[in-house]
Amino acid sequence: MKTEKTCQRCKQIRPISDFVDTSGAKNPRGKYCIKCYVAREKGFLREALKEEKSNISKLRIVYGKYWKHYALPHNFSTTLFNERDFCPYCGVELKRDSHIDHMNPLELGGEESIKNAVFCCSSCNIKKGSKPFLMWLKQLKPKYRKIAREIYTAKHGYPPEKFKKGTQTQRAGSGCLDYGLLFDEDELKKMYPEPIVDGPPEKEFNITISLDTQKFMKNKNSKR
Question: Rounded to two decimals, what is the model's pTM?
């Protein structure tokens, strides 16, 4: 029985027990040793955070100081995941298969933005469902009830008691990308010398910059 093999990244011969699969779980059929897997994941994390940081700068140009209200959670999943390494509702270690949770449910008018989003474990995501945040807090252990409340208040700028139920907010699909993120910062500054909003999004109001984007592309191509 084979007890050693070569890691495809570091090219070192290592014990079979040192190898992992793409999720990081021990697997003798894995291509990489655990040391190389960790280094690879850290590299991916750095690049993803770098890209999302650049996207934040772009959103600031388009939406000004209110950019967080217009930053779709799935476009900043690495930034959100990197906020903490444990579920804010129960304390278990977060994995890559964890879920983005809208603290104020979209069904109750919660915002579809990073201001209203945190990563939590699969179990808590299912248990919480579309419950109002205050109702959900009552189901948590005292330690995590306090932690979750503090996180909510820091993100929203007000305690959960201040949330007012509204009409259902439309969920942005995982493939939905703000058109502004497709351009570099210099191009966006020409397109939007001033932010296009003067406050958070209103219910039943959806910001789009596609028309101006098309106009910009037409002018840009005509100069070539």
Answer: 0.76
